[in-house]
Amino acid sequence: MAKPVLLFLLSLVVTSHATCPRDSNNVRNQENQIHLLRPITGAAGRNIPEIDCLSWRLAVETYNLRNWGMLPSSCEDYVGHYMLGKQYRKDCEAVADVAIEYAKSLKLSGNGKEIWVFDIDETTLSNLPYYARSDVQFGALPYNATRFDEWVATGDAPAVPAVLRLYKTVLALGIKPVFLSGTKEKLRQSRISNLNKAGYRKWEKLILKGQNEPHSSVEYKSNKRTELVEAGYIIVGNIGDQWSDLIGTNVGNRTFKVPDPMYFIS
Ligand SMILES: *[C@@H]1O[C@H](CO)[C@@H](O)[C@H](O)[C@H]1NC(C)=O
Ligand SMILES: *[C@@H]1O[C@H](CO)[C@@H](O)[C@H](O)[C@H]1NC(C)=O
Ligand SMILES: [Mg+2]
Fold first, then answer.
1. CA distances, 120 to each of 52, 77, 140 (Å)
2. 146: Cβ below 6 Å to ligand 1?
3. pTM of the prediction?
4. How distant, in Å, are the alpha carbons of 77, 115, 170, 196, 229 from that of 232?
5. What are the residue boundaries of the structural domains of the chain, listed by start?
6. What class does CATH assign to 2-257?
7. Angle 122-68-194 (CA atoms, 0-180°, nearest 5)?
8. Which of 147, 149, 151, 154 for mutating ligand 1's site (highest number of atoms within 8 Å of CB)?
9. Residue whose CA is closest, atom 10 of ligand 2?
10. Residues 78-116: pLDDT tens digits?
């Protein structure tokens, strides 16, 4: 599901530079709502070298940099190339490889209480078709909740292939998946159909955010995990794209972080 979408986006980015005159680029850009990326090298008028964006991404992924709000606009091209190119997918596959190795090494009790917590956005499902739009620009434009919710309501987000592979392994091992997401409760039906469409068809729980939950994701997710533990579940694994998915209380026996240089959620 995801690969054709991403390859389509990528091929648009690659071929449009080489073959299309400026005007047809613009037409195509509007029709497909895909922001065209400028080449990484020779970005005229930009004096911030690419390496700064690589260092910036490392700082983001290691949680050295926090509460960064919006992607620096000078790194929009870099992040766009990273997300649409091979590296992002390779990095996700590498995370899934270690997570799968760990899951397979577990001695399960057989009592059906072992669970694996999956975040949804940019972990289970990819919003890349949304983030690549010209009115979003990989997070270089301010977040617009209305616009994002409209996208979520379409139920068209593809799976992150590596995480779908982890999910299938976890299920086959007898560990029950629990989805824990900051998605609003009112979008439950869209999320269910989206998960099904993307290949996630079974779960123990799908926890979405009700109206009276704490604003902080760390607090919200910690509370929900605590409820799971109090109900007798053992969180053997936990995977997310945000540090706020993986810190707080009852984070689980092991946590796994997939990359996300597009936005920060505290
Ligand atoms: C947010 O998105 C909605 C829906 O696309 C749009 O109508 C609105 O103008 C946007 N708000 C801002 C501040 O850009
Ligand atoms: C997982 O964590 C629980 C709760 O902290 C602990 O009781 C259990 O021994 C841990 N299991 C493994 C395999 O480390
Ligand atoms: Mg997420």
1. 29, 25, 22
2. yes
3. 0.83
4. 46, 10, 19, 27, 5
5. 2-257
6. alpha beta
7. 15
8. 147
9. 253
10. 999 999 999 999 999 999 999 999 999 999 998 999 999
